[in-house]
């Protein structure tokens, strides 16, 4: 679960509601026709821009934004080093049973291709193609969210214009000018809220998650090809550590060092 996404949405809405209540009433900001113009218009324009299936897919991706599993490249490196040790001791065929229990389908597929004796260049092509399609799928959903964010303020402005036109019709009654202006501006408020609190942040988060997932898959691919070429597990580990940030690399080295000392103490005991 991505706590940051929940905190961002809930705290953003809560702070806006509190600021409204401190200066007036929440009911002042509720206007059904304005909601229909802003939400309905934004959805209609997005449906014109993308096929229905892509729009529906983007709603499914929302679940990924809020309930994604944190990327842990350190654990992946340990997993690959363990696979490399097994391959070095017992041969590549020994990886077949282990691969069946691997949780990540991308790593599982790569290891099974190695076990099958697939040419390294073909493995790279297959895995990179899969990675390209994964990026394309995420970019399409990101594009849908960015389209929502583009159209929402525009329909907010259209709603404001409609409200202003209706207000100008009642200029002979000064008592209706102020309330009319307030209602007209509500659509701009709705459009800005949808764009800058919901859809643009979602597009940015999806872009970030895509980069993290792509980096992890590239790490896996390098590990898979290194195992196939029979490289020393220690060399593979050092090579894959280049994918970690300096801080994460330091934590990884500290954790593996402590684990090594623990094993040594157990052996002495």
TrEMBL record:
TM ranges: 7-26, 32-53, 147-168, 180-199
Residue span, MotA/TolQ/ExbB proton channel domain: 100-218
Annotated GO CC locations: plasma membrane
Topology in membrane: Multi-pass membrane protein
Signal peptide range in chain numbering: none
Coiled coil location: none
Subcellular location: Cell membrane
InterPro entries xrefs: Flag_MotA_CS, MotA-like, MotA_ExbB_proton_chnl
Entry annotated with the keyword Methyltransferase: no
Domain of life from the UniProt record: Bacteria
Transmembrane helix in keyword set: yes
PROSITE patterns per the UniProt record, alphabetical: MOTA
Example GO biological process: bacterial-type flagellum-dependent swarming motility
Keywords on record: Cell membrane, Cell projection, Cilium, Flagellum, Membrane, Transmembrane, Transmembrane helix, Transport
NCBIfam families for this protein: PRK09109.1
Similarity-based family: Belongs to the MotA family.
Protein name (Swiss-Prot/TrEMBL): Flagellar motor protein
Taxonomic lineage: Bacteria, Bacillati, Bacillota, Clostridia, Thermoanaerobacterales
């Amino acid at each position: 679960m991505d706590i940051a996404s929940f905190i961002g949405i809930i705290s953003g809405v809560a702070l806006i509601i509190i600021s409204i209540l401190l200066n007036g009433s929440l009911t002042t900001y509720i206007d059904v026709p304005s909601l229909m113009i802003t939400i309905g218009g934004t959805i209609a324009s997005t449906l014109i821009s993308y096929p229905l299936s892509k729009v529906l897919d983007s709603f499914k991706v929302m679940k990924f934004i809020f309930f994604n599993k944190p990327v842990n490249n350190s654990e992946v490196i340990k997993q690959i080093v363990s696979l490399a040790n097994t391959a070095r001791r017992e041969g590549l065929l020994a990886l077949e049973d282990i691969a069946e229990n691997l949780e990540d389908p991308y790593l599982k597929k790569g290891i099974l291709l190695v076990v099958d004796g697939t040419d390294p260049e073909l493995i790279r092509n297959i895995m990179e193609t899969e990675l390209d399609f994964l990026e394309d799928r995420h970019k399409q959903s990101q594009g849908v969210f960015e389209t929502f964010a583009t159209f929402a303020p525009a329909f907010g402005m259209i709603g404001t214009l409609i409200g202003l036109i209706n207000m100008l019709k009642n200029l002979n009654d000064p008592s209706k000018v102020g309330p009319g202006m307030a209602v007209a501006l509500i659509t701009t408020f709705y459009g800005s809220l949808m764009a800058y609190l919901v859809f643009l942040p979602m597009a940015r988060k999806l872009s970030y998650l895509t980069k993290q997932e792509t980096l992890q898959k590239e790490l896996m691919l390098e590990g898979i090809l290194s195992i196939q070429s029979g490289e020393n597990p220690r060399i593979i580990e050092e090579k894959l550590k280049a994918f970690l940030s300096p801080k994460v690399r330091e934590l990884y080295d500290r954790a593996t060092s402590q684990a090594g000392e623990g094993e040594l103490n157990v052996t002495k005991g």
